[in-house]
Amino acid sequence: MNNQYDAFVIGAGLTGLTTAFYLKRKGKKVLVIEKNDRIGGVISTKEKNGFLFEQGPNTGILGSVEMVDLIEDLGQAVQLEVGNDNVNKRFILKGTWQQLPSGIGGGISTPLFTTKDKFRILGEAFRSRGKNEHETLAEMVRRRMGESFLNYAIDPFILGVYAGDPSYLVTRYALPKLYNLEQKYGSFIGGSVKKMFKAKDNSEARATRKVFSVNGGLSNLTGAIANEIGKENFILGASNLKINQTENGYELSCNSNNETISLNAKNVITTVPAFELSEFLPFVEKEIISKTENVFYAPVVEVALGFKNWNGIDLNGFGGLIPHIENRDLLGVMYMSSLFKNRAPENGALISIFVGGARKPHLTKLPQNEIENVVEKEMSELMGIKNFNPDLFELIWHNKAIPQYGKESGERFESVETIKNKYPGLFIGGNLCDGIGMADRVKQGKKLAGLVD
Ligand SMILES: Cc1cc2nc3c(=O)[nH]c(=O)nc-3n(C[C@H](O)[C@H](O)[C@H](O)COP(=O)(O)OP(=O)(O)OC[C@H]3O[C@@H](n4cnc5c(N)ncnc54)[C@H](O)[C@@H]3O)c2cc1C
After folding, report:
1. Which residue is closest in CA terms to ligand 1's atom 27?
2. Global pTM exceeds 0.90
3. What domains sit in the chain, N to C, each tagged with a CATH number?
4. Distance 179 CA to ligand 1 centre (A)
5. Is residue 25 within 8 Å of 32, Cβ to Cβ?
6. How confident is the model over 130-139, as a mean pLDDT?
7. Pocket probe mutation, ligand 1, options 157, 270, 272, max atoms within 8 Å of Cβ
8. 43 CA closest ligand 1 atom index
9. Helices 137-144 and 176-185, interaxial angle, to 10°?
10. What is residue 127's three-state secondary structure?
């Protein structure tokens, strides 16, 4: 192994793979270092008993041009599967499942929001801009739209994206597009309408926000990226990773396959979660690196539940989210087999369920049989399952799943910039900054590759 590289990429999740893919395309000599024996990070698809299920993210959104580009750049190596029309039928629990309205008519008749708040929303465009840059999402929505919108629209949306708590997340950091709508246009609704009519340039218009997976599941996406990077450009199962600064860049040492490896590169790009960083960057000032780590990752237990003969409620839809105020023990359910092909046997159903999150972390600490009991009780009641006897019942623990962008995030983002300026060639990426969704990760990965010269 020639031991001089242009760049080391630390972490082989979607972000690291995207970074390495685009570095390689630029003709750079790149090496990806991953502590696990497999690539993909939290993305992991599995087949069992006739079901094809995800153990991490279930769906992506074509929400950034970079996400669309990546799929196109992979060409025939992946077959994109856009979710069918069921993606537009989403449910929110308010006693029973209520369909989330999309048009004005549905908005008026829905029982999800109070009549007072429906009138209140008419005045949303006239409310003044927020002045507190650390205003939480809950405070902002209460101020502009009312309590029932917070409880039955924003709260479940945040559960679906962050497994989070709107009273903790700061809009400016967690939903910057929403924050900017208010700051720029003075209104969510007015701003959205203006943006809709504003001509998008061709590239922007390609980010359609469609829900997607790929044939065979999301591991085929990360697998295809890794193939393009080339097996020889990975070190898997890396332990005792340490990076040190040298005169011309960085020196990396780690163990893999009972060997001690020592290599050099001009650049290092980290894409690991925040809590892993300080371990292998001993030369970065404590005060700076500690600020990159100041983020709480909400835990979740993901449950893949499969039935060969479904006997519950109609599953034509995307799935349902369960507002915190409903006092249930599940965060939400996704009807995966209603969205994508070949996920469950014919007449069967594959459902993905989330338990825990930022407000009910204790549930993730329960013994397995107690979590299974929670799932059985809730699913029987909510999904009308008469005889709960699943053919697939898999629990996947994510003890540090989703970073929560609270008020401390500004400091974290600043320290990422400080490191970039203070340590030339060292770039901090990963989901501690720049967003948490797959489309954000790909956008960041491509940006990071662009920073390496
Ligand atoms: C349960 C769950 C469900 C989600 N659902 C969705 C969804 O439906 N849609 C969506 O868009 N997004 C979803 N997300 C978010 C999205 O999946 C992630 O943000 C994204 O996949 C993270 O990719 P990443 O590469 O940044 O991080 P990761 O996937 O965490 O990859 C980081 C990699 O770094 C490696 N690593 C860590 N420490 C070291 C070290 N010291 N040395 C070397 N390697 C190291 C890890 O092993 C890992 O492989 C979900 C996330 C989770 C956890």
Report:
1. 13
2. yes
3. 4-43+66-74+221-294+405-451 (3.50.50.60), 114-199 (1.10.3110.10), 296-404 (3.90.660.20)
4. 25
5. no
6. 94
7. 272
8. 21
9. 40
10. coil
